[in-house]
Amino acid sequence: MNADGADAAGGAAGRTPLDRMPEWQALARHRAELGEVRLRALFDGDAARAERYSVRVGDLYLDYSKHLVTDETLALLRELAAATDVAGLRDAMFRGDRINVTEGRAVLHTALRAPRDAVVEVDGENVVPGVHAVLDRMAGFAARVRDGDWTGHTGARIRTVVNIGIGGSDLGPAMAYEALLPYTLRDLDVRFVSNVDGADLHEALHGLDAAETLFIVASKTFTTIETITNATSAKNWLLESLGGADASAVAKHFVALSTNGPEVERFGIDTANMFEFWDWVGGRYSFDSAIGLSLMIAIGPDRFRELLDGFRLVDDHFRTAPPEANAPLLLGLLGVWYGGFFDAQSHAVLPYSHYLSRFTAYLQQLDMESNGKSVDREGRPVDWDTGPVVWGTPGTNGQHAYYQLLHQGTRMIPADLIGFARPVDELGPELAAQHDLLMANLFAQGQALAFGKTADEVRAEGVPEEQVPHRTFHGDHPTTTVLATELSPSVLGQLIALYEHKVFVQGAVWDIDSFDQWGVELGKVLAKRVEPALTEGAEVAGLDASTAALVARYRQLRGRTD
Ligand SMILES: O=P(O)(O)OC[C@H]1O[C@](O)(CO)[C@@H](O)[C@@H]1O
User: 391 by DSSP, 3-state: which?
Assistant: First the structure.
């Protein structure tokens, strides 16, 4: 129960297991009755299918007509959403209920983009004024860095910003920085360091002048070993590079983004240089919080607010659009359909934009850390598949790498094809002209995946009979096409919110806690235990034979054996 006495699981306690729900069983029967679904037949039988199976949200147009579904499928999926109370849990999330049951936390990334006059309460306190206070501080700081008003220890202007963080404290801003490069100050470089492999920091520092470098240490907990290790090395580099400057130099070159003031202070960063956020912001949902500071410096506060507006547009849509036209709900349910009834194990996200080259990596954490769970919210093992493996890279590169498997392999891999009507202005006429070719590829891939090429069509081209099977494309590979106007800050916000809420819908249906991440803990604990074995040859109790042999071999290769 939360402070209001409401059910902490947002009404999910005691829920009938998904696969025993009549609505799930109705879908299973429907799937059996459908048998082989042929998209050619579905399109032939319904001239209006493309129009009917599309939805507009803000600047996004979603075509889901190339999915293996009928009106009945969609109706049954909506019934499943109703039976699993997706809307109830959604409202509980927006309201600030503690729907992250295993951590007892509210899940309020939506409050990060709420308008100033909104009221969102956690334990009776409106969190919105705090959100805007931090945004305003960030805007003030970002403006000073951009204008050259914030200077380093020697009085030099900041020319490079290095964000040190990992997971949700890296992937969002790193992805968005690349996505919005045309909107950035080109003479202010932003680099991202995440890996504890010293090579990452080494390369990021290459060629930098410490006097002109600002480090942003981004960590919700401020205890993440990778980030603290990198930040410590960066601090040492700075002080050394500044000719043995004293610790006061840190105040001009280090700021922190965190929920943990005491740890920030312990690290040696003045909390006056800390931009806070709150435990009700999950790491992978945090990039529109203070964690976005590096991005805000790069694109400026106004553009950052446009990004937040984009998020909010989709939040409002998700809260208010009817189920038939609710884009995140539809996308979530389609994934449930393929995971539950087609044994789809993975989901490809294929952006036809070079600027979105890190988009899928960002979604991997969003989706897989959220929905990679195997017990329900009450801790009972689930008997149904949960989150898929999410993967993909920008088209058209993927076409010349792994699309072969998408077209002719044996696996069911639903995919999202994401493209933009307009190329970015900066490209100039000649490069912008290439955009049509890029988009022709996107449309062609959706078409080929859906409709394939029959053996008769292959024969009609005069292909020798023995080659016909090799050149036949079965088709019926489902895709959603997301066609947006252009890759602007607002559109990026819309896209991310679309996926955030899609992931939410799936977690709600599958009855899992999409907001914890216990699965990352064991590896962290074991790494801490194994490290002394590598460095000092310490005995590690309970080390299995395989790992012990690997450790011994490693020490031998490092010349550390006695
Ligand atoms: O921001 P922090 O606390 O450094 O955590 C970084 C990342 O580590 C994780 O906790 C996983 O280990 C992610 O959920 C999070 O985004």
Answer: strand
Q: Which residues have CB under 8 Å from 81's CB, separation 6+?
A: 87, 323, 329, 333, 505, 508, 509
**Could you read off the pLDDT of 41-53 as tens digits, one per residue?**
999 999 999 999 9
Cα→Cα distances 479→71, 334, 347, 413, 443, Å? 17, 10, 10, 9, 11
Query: What is the number of other CB atoms lying within 10 angstroms of the CB of residue 261?
Result: 14
Please choose from 103, 169, 276, 285 the residue to mutate so as to test ligand 1's pocket, defined by most ligand atoms within 8 A of CB: 169
Give the orientation angle of helix 521-536 with respect to helix 225-241, to 10 degrees: 50
Give distance in angstroms: CA of 167 to centre of ligand 1.
5
Nearest CA, atom 12, ligand 1? 520
Residue 488: per-residue pLDDT: 98
The DSSP secondary structure of 288-348, one letter per residue, reads TTGGGHHHHHHH-HHHHHHHHHHHHHHHHHHHHS-GGG-HHHHHHHHHHHHHHHS---EEE
**Do the Cβ atoms of 88 and 100 come closer than 8 Å?**
no
Which burial class, exposed, middle or buried, applies to 404 when counting CB atoms under 10 A from its CB (0-12, 13-18, 19+)?
Answer: exposed
Selected catalytic residue, list 400, 461, 465, 539: 400
The interface pTM score, or ipTM, of the predicted complex is 0.98
CA-218 nearest atom, ligand 1:
1
**So what's the pLDDT on residue 541?**
87
For the CA of 524, the closest atom of ligand 1 is 12
Cβ of 221 less than 6 Å from ligand 1: yes
Q: What are phi and psi of 391, to 5 degrees?
A: -155, 175
Contact 328, 166 (CB under 8 A): no
C-alpha–C-alpha distance, residues 402 and 409, integer Å = 10
Q: What is the pLDDT of residue 9?
A: 43
pTM: 0.96
Question: Would the CB of 166 count as within 6 Å of ligand 1?
Answer: yes
What's residue 7's pLDDT?
Answer: 45
Q: Is the dihedral of CA 223, 363, 293, 99 positive or negative?
A: negative
Positive/negative CA dihedral, 419, 422, 424, 429: positive
Residue nearest to atom 7 of ligand 1 (CA): 167
Under 8 Å between Cβ of 423 and 416: no
Residues 6+ apart with CB under 8 A from 10: 85, 88, 89, 92, 93, 97, 99
**Relative to the CA of 224, which ligand 1 atom is closest?**
4
Q: pLDDT, tens digit, for every residue of 496-509?
A: 999 999 999 999 99
- d(CA 494, CA 483) in angstroms, rounded, equals 12
| Predicted pLDDT at 161 | 98
Regions in the chain scoring below 70 on pLDDT:
1-13, 562
Q: Is 400 a catalytic residue?
A: yes
Cα(77) to centroid(ligand 1), Å: 33
The verdict on whether 369 is a catalytic residue reads yes
Our answer on whether the CB atom of 514 is closer than 6 Å to any ligand 1 atom is no
For residue 503 the two structure tokens come to 């992931």
Query: Ligand 1 centroid vs 119 CA: distance in angstroms?
Result: 28
